[in-house]
Amino acid sequence: MRKAEKRLKRLHRHLSRKKKGFKNHKKARKALAKAYLKVQRQREDFARKTANALITSHDLIAYEHLQIRNLVKNRHLAKSISDASWGRFLFWLNYYGQVHGIPIIAIEPAFTSQDCGGCGTRIKESLSVRTHACSGCGLILDRDHNAAIVRRFGTYQISPRGR
Ligand SMILES: [Zn+2]
């Protein structure tokens, strides 16, 4: 995507150097339009393929319901989020989810909670917090790791103190 961006910038510069009404201006404009179309197709393709790959390898997908508009206010994040075409990705995720009968769940970040694999304490944390840190027993684990343990074995199965 960054590469495509450079190309777009170059084509924009190219176009700005041509005089309106001349043949070369028309040519440059066409080239730019074509490049934009290509980037758009690439993004769509990426969103669709990523969604399909996820759906075909999982039984259930839950995602943090991000407020894209709020995130885009952050300039650094905005670029990545727009590039990733989050909205298009979700569209395809739901589409393939329906096709293959895989439940897709949107989770409100504020109400996400996770049970501790060590002691069962229910902790509220945002999905964007990647580390599970329990205030009950002091267990520190990767969030997904903890979730997988709880899902597979239930709580009380692991202990930071080697119980
Ligand atoms: Zn705990």
Q: How many DSSP E strands?
A: 6
Pattern of helices and strands: HHEHHHEEEEEH
Strand order of the largest sheet: 1-2
Provide the structure class: alpha+beta
Helix percentage? 55-70%
Give me the Rg, rounded. Answer: 23 Å
Folded structure, characterized:
- This is Transposase.
- Residues 86-149 form the Cas12f1-like TNB domain.
- InterPro entries: Cas12f1-like_TNB, Transposase.
- Residues 2-74 form the Probable transposase IS891/IS1136/IS1341 domain.
- This protein has 2 domains: 2-107, no CATH class; 110-153, no CATH class.
- Helices cover 56% and strands 12% of the residues.
- The chain has 6 helices and 6 strands.
- The strands form 3 sheets. The chain has a two-stranded parallel ribbon. A two-stranded antiparallel ribbon has the order 3-4.
- Helix 1 (2-16) runs antiparallel to helix 2 (23-56) and helix 2 (23-56) crosses helix 5 (86-100).
- Zinc ion binds at residues 116, 118-119, 121, 134, 136-137, 139.
